[in-house]
Amino acid sequence: MEERAPKGKKVGGRRLHNALSERTVRTAKVPGRYFDGQGLFLMVQPSGAKSWVQRVTVRGRRQELGLGGYPVVTLQMAREAALVNRREVRNGGNPKTNRQRARGVPTFAEAAHKVYTSSGGPAGGAPSTPGSGSGRLRSSSSLASPITAWTISRRKT
Hints:
Elements: E1 3-4, H1 22-27, E2 32-37, E3 40-44, E4 50-58, E5 61-70, H2 75-90, H3 95-103, H4 108-118, H5 121-124, H6 140-143, H7 149-154
Parallel strand pairs: 1-2
Antiparallel strand pairs: 2-3, 3-4, 4-5
């Protein structure tokens, strides 16, 4: 996809701000990214679908946040949502993680803890899977034992 900006605006410039107009957004038909500035852009798909995306950097990692599709989310609404997200990142938050938590999506640690405690922990073992024998987890010492030359030489090839 190619990058586009409205006529008369710099594509290569780093400081675009409010580069798009409502008319430009409404009439954009060529697939690509139309940048408004400060990480906000309109993504036009080959099918003609348009959606707002914001690019932010959280703790050194770049993330793209979907803000919604046009025309349900207008240019002004997308700018306001982008401003809220930028403020959250500036205050040390992560808009993507907070959005997932609001929807009830657990983190990996939360999900693992839930599965571990529901299976009875170390005494109860893990739920059994077909062909796993007793259904209990092997001890961590057997999983972490070093591979020795003896182990490799006894292995059939």
